[in-house]
Specification:
The structure holds two protein chains of two kinds.
Chain A (H helix, E strand, L loop, with lengths): L7 H11 L8 H12 L8 E7 L38 H4 L5 E7 L6 H10 L12 H9 L9 E4 L16 E3 L17 H21 L2 H19 L13 H7 L3 H15 L3 E6 L8 H25 L6 E7 L2 E2 L11 E2 L3 E7 L6 E3 L23 H12 L7 E3 L2 E3 L15
Parallel strand pairs in A: 1-5, 1-6, 2-10, 3-4, 3-5
Antiparallel strand pairs in A: 2-9, 6-9, 7-8, 11-12
Helix pairs in contact in A: 6-7, 9-10
Chain B lengths: L5 H19 L19 H19 L9 H13 L5 H7 L11 H13 L2 H16 L6 H15 L4 H9 L3 E2 L7 H4 L5 H13 L18 H8 L5 E6 L6 E6 L5 H9 L23 H10 L4 H16 L19 H13 L4 H9 L2 H4 L21 E2 L2 H12 L20 H27 L16 H9 L10 H8 L6 H13 L5 H11 L7 H11 L6 E2 L1
Helix pairs in contact in B: 1-2, 1-15, 2-16, 3-5, 6-7, 8-13, 14-15, 14-16, 18-19, 19-20, 21-22, 22-24
Classes of the chains: A alpha/beta, B mainly alpha.
Chain lengths: ~425, ~550
């Protein structure tokens, strides 16, 4: 009579959240973890750097300028060796990397609101109050990361924490708000040395014994795993990868100055060490006024570091195994507003890919001469539109994610990417 | 789970139905002529006792042995955390006198009912309920201005014990502007994102997750896109915005005034996909003179006759206090996720509605019950019990509770952040005023940085958390181990303890006080062994007490209620 059946979904959720670190005592659980561990990924990609442009970068002042047209504004374009890849003149160094990048001019959504648009672009799914989807970095950390690695598998440089949703807190980003500066709470508190910390932790351990026995073994195990991970990070020599102190001057010079440059160097250091997912945030793209000057300045702060990153990765033999993704939540209106600005425009905007697995040196999608992809009667003038669900299906395919695996979000089945869509095959090798 | 044991289910339901009916019915030997209808909503003790009786019968039937009632110490910590968001202080523990008679001569169940009364009347209860509901309603969207208003509205309403149906109605039908009507904070959260607003309202208040039907017919529920559209149409005439600058800035929301039925139809026709409003899974909306369509929706949602509203509410409170509800996850009622014991849920929902949606009535019935008071340690027969309430559960604190707990145990929350400092340039201040200003800045700095740390470290914590989910982000461990939570420049509670027991020979007295301050209970036999053994052997000056204080804050117990 007392035979309660374990709810399979609850069970799966618990073990997924534990990420294989917290050993479940159940036989079923160990079988599952073993299966996960043995699934060999068929992809050369070892790491992903997402450059996320907060605010919605103007396509017309970055990678899809329309000089001479009525909507073009003062922005000039640079012709490159790749037809259609004509970045704005404030991106001269990236213009030379045309063969190393793939430009999607036809990213298209219907979400013109910052938070909804950002959610969609970061996860591949429209926001939904009943499900919390993980963002790209969390998915990469889950699929490519080693759960026993000393450093966090997903590091985010600047920006706010975007929770990993149904994947569980283990895949939340480790957010560094001031890249290069001392990270909060990573060092022993003032006046506390290893010995004092040991003393404290020894007492904790004694307290836990009773708490586990009497009250909650699961809670204590989870707590212990979290502390072990945190302490390993505190004592890890790899911590120095978060900082720039030992980075040679000539490398720093090559990337240039500014937080974005520093962030990209740190990103490379982390990827090199084995962190699979790094997100670098550059904000300020919401240019409702003074669009042309502001975007040109942003491009300037982006151009040299990004170009330097490509060179640096190539030099180290990492460009083939590192995927670069550049995106924002949407583009800007072709029509210039009275305040010399451009407003939100999700109908067509740019995403740039590069590095591992990407069939670089091509442009996908085409926009009309005046940048206006909606005709007078609302007709679609954008060629080859690509929606976020297909982009994520493509990225997942390139990295060989386990996209058939079913997760539980609440009580609902979920997959990392939408199963109903096809990847864009011409994007990858 | 239940589907797999149909015989058991049937038996159980019959038993419960009989018991519940018996509890409310009138005994045969009572004099004729008395009202024989069940007295729902009149007596929370009756609700409580019939639930206890029903579950005890169910447990016996299923061969599940219930846990003993938790001791006073554990009960006090549990009820303080659940009702105020933080553990009891030493003074509060001593007042309760665990295991003994208190100053009023009370003990046992009577004493426990008295502390529940006291806590329900405290401002901390209203504030904590408000925080909990703000997170449920608006999730963790930062603490922007909308959340500030929502929090203000909720804490005032909980302090006044306003009926829950009235509160829900006030939030759903809110119009006007801030700060006059802080109830606007709820819908303002969604700005003008109508689908999100519609989805959240049906999830939070009715437990129906119909959001999937925004983009496609629901994969396994009867909800179609039409259902979603016609229900979301209630929000389509809602609009919100802001006016004014700086301190004068205010936020407003209004539905367009409606003249008559035709007017509604015409206006809706102009707003996107044209669907006339239809109450979710129910009848079509009918023009109601003088009411906005949103008010009509609020009427329908909060109607005592609407089982979804009352059952969702009792389910949420049961889950909050017991660790599991009739339906889990708590806000996901659907055909694949049937309630464990629908009969009990039905009675409980009706009783709650009949009480006038009295939140304190409902809470009293739950937290003074035997099922709430049971210990968490499972025995051989009830380890897997998620249905019969034969035990309570270890549950991790929400980030908001962690914040409240840290502020309380460190003593920072009792430092006065509103020291009188004249609003003049620093060089015009007297030495005392300068000192006061400095302290004020330290306190607000501490609170702000704690909030930020918690937001980062608990950023991914689910709003609705399963009782078995205990995993945490490493940032939480880093914070507890390394952040300056007990700052030496502020009059923290450790300093108080050391001052109260000035003699170093009072080592164990000091340690006991630290233990009670941090963990909110008296040390039991084993805890005493640790204090008298491991801790007593620590060499050093005052820093050993700091080590003890911080170590206790790093235990699993500190971030869990049990």
């Amino acid at each position: 009579m007392t035979e309660f059946l374990v709810n399979r979904r609850d069970f799966l959720r618990t073990s997924a959240a534990a990420g294989g670190i917290i050993a479940t005592s159940s036989f079923l659980g160990s079988t599952l973890s073993a299966q996960e561990a043995t699934r060999a990924r068929n992809s050369k990609i070892k790491g992903v750097i997402l450059m996320y442009m907060e605010g919605g970068p103007s396509q017309l002042e970055t990678f899809d300028p329309k000089p001479g047209s009525k909507n073009g504004g003062p922005t000039k374009a640079i012709e490159t060796e790749v037809p259609g890849f004509t970045p704005a003149e404030s991106l001269p160094l990236l213009a030379k990397k045309a063969k190393d990048l793939l430009l999607i001019k036809s990213m298209a959504t219907r979400e013109g609101n910052h938070s909804r648009g950002a959610y969609l672009m970061r996860t591949g799914f429209a926001p939904n109050p009943t499900i919390k989807h993980p963002s790209l970095g969390s998915m990469v950390a889950h699929q490519l990361g080693n759960p026993n690695f000393e450093l966090p598998n997903f590091v985010k440089l600047r920006g706010s924490p975007f929770p990993a949703g149904y994947l569980g807190v283990d895949y939340n980003p480790f957010v560094i708000s001031r890249p290069g500066a001392k990270i909060e709470n990573l060092d022993y508190a003032k006046g506390v040395d290893k010995e004092r910390m040991e003393r404290r932790m020894k007492l904790v351990k004694e307290m836990e014994k009773d708490f586990a026995k009497e009250r909650g073994e699961d809670a204590v195990q989870a707590h212990k795993a979290m502390y072990e991970k945190a302490r390993r990070l505190m004592d890890s020599p790899l911590r120095k990868k978060f900082y720039l102190d030992d980075e040679p001057t000539e490398v720093r010079k090559a990337y240039g100055e500014g937080a974005f440059a520093d962030s990209l160097i740190i990103a490379r250091r982390l990827i090199e060490t084995g962190v699979p997912a790094v997100e670098v945030v550059l904000g300020g793209w919401d240019t409702h006024d003074d669009n042309f000057k502001r975007v040109a300045d942003l491009c300037k702060s982006m151009d040299q570091p990004w170009a330097a990153l490509i060179d640096d990765l190539k030099k180290r033999g990492m460009y083939d195994s590192t995927l670069l993704v550049w995106m924002g939540e949407f583009g800007r209106t072709p029509r210039i507003s009275p305040t010399d600005g451009r407003d939100h425009w999700p109908s067509n905007f740019c995403v740039v890919l590069g590095g591992g697995g990407v069939k670089s040196g091509q442009v996908i999608g085409e926009t009309p001469e005046d940048g206006m992809t909606r005709g007078a009667k609302g007709e679609e003038l954008l060629k080859d539109p690509i929606a976020p669900d297909r982009l994520y299906r493509t990225l997942g395919t390139m990295m060989d994610w386990d996209m058939a695996r079913e997760f539980q979000a609440g009580n609902r089945p979920m997959w990392l990417t939408d199963k109903a869509v096809q990847p864009v095959e011409k994007i990858y090798k | 789970m239940l589907r797999r044991a149909p015989v058991l289910l049937l038996l159980a339901l019959l038993t419960v139905a009989c018991l519940v009916a018996a509890a409310y019915g009138v005994k045969a030997d009572e004099p004729a002529g008395r009202d024989t209808t069940p007295q729902l909503g009149k007596d929370w003790r009756q609700l409580r006792d019939s639930m206890d009786a029903a579950y005890e019968a169910l447990q016996a039937d299923a061969g599940v042995k219930p846990n003993p009632i938790a001791d006073d110490s554990v009960f006090l910590r549990r009820v303080y955390l659940d009702l105020t968001g933080a553990p009891p202080s030493i003074a509060e523990i001593n007042e309760f006198a665990p295991g003994r008679r208190d100053a009023n001569g009370l003990k046992g169940q009577e004493k426990r009912e008295a502390i529940v009364d006291k806590l329900l009347a405290s401002p901390e209860f209203a504030e904590h309920m408000a925080t909990w509901w703000r997170v449920v309603l608006a999730e963790r969207q930062g603490d922007g201005i909308y959340q500030t208003y929502l929090q203000r509205y909720l804490s005032e309403a909980f302090a006044a014990n306003r009926p829950w149906n009235q509160m829900a109605h006030e939030m759903l039908a809110a119009t006007g502007k801030t700060p006059d009507n802080p109830a606007l904070g709820f819908l303002l959260t969604f700005e003008n994102d109508k689908p999100a607003m519609a989805g959240q309202v049906s999830k939070v208040f009715l437990g129906r997750q119909i959001q999937c039907a925004e983009c496609h017919d629901h994969p396994y529920e009867a909800w179609s896109m039409d259902d979603f559209e016609s229900y979301a149409a209630f929000f389509r005439l809602f609009s919100t915005g802001a006016k004014g600058d700086g301190a004068d800035r205010y936020w407003f929301s209004n539905d367009q005034a409606i003249k008559n039925d035709v007017d509604v139809r015409n206006r809706l026709r102009l707003k996107g996909k044209y669907k006339l409003p239809r109450f979710l899974g129910d009848k079509d909306w009918q023009y109601d003179s003088g009411k906005t369509i949103r008010e009509s929706l609020a009427d329908w949602i909060t109607n005592p006759e609407n089982p979804w509203f009352r059952e969702m509410t009792v389910n949420r409170y049961l889950d909050y206090f017991m660790g599991v509800g009739f339906v889990n996850p708590v806000d996901d009622f659907n055909s694949m996720n049937e309630p464990a014991l629908p009969v009990v849920m039905e009675v409980m929902g009706k009783d709650f509605a009949a009480s006038g949606f009295d939140i304190r009535y409902l809470i009293r019935a739950i937290v003074t019950s035997k099922m709430y008071q049971r210990a968490v340690d499972p025995n051989r027969t009830n380890r897997q019990d998620r249905v019969y309430y034969s035990r309570n559960f270890v549950r991790s604190l929400t980030p908001e509770m962690v914040e409240r707990s840290i502020l309380k145990v460190t003593g920072i929350d009792r430092l006065n952040p509103h020291l009188p400092v004249p609003n003049v340039a620093d060089d015009k201040l007297s030495a005392d005023e300068k000192k006061a200003k400095q302290i004020r800045d330290w306190i607000s700095g501490y609170k702000a940085s704690l909030r930020l740390l918690i937001r980062n470290a608990w950023g991914g914590d689910p709003v609705v958390k399963d009782v078995d989910e205990h995993d945490g982000n490493i940032l939480q461990a880093l914070m507890f181990m390394n952040a300056d939570l007990l700052p030496g420049h502020l009059n923290n509670s450790l300093k108080d303890i050391l001052a109260k027991y000035p003699h170093p020979k009072d080592k164990i007295k000091r340690a006991t006080a630290i233990f009670m301050t941090v963990l909110g209970r008296e040390p039991d036999t084993r805890d005493k062994q640790i204090l008298n053994g491991t801790f007593a052997n620590w060499k050093g000056g005052d820093e050993v007490y700091e080590d003890l204080f911080i170590a206790l804050m790093n235990t699993t117990e500190f971030v869990n209620r049990h």
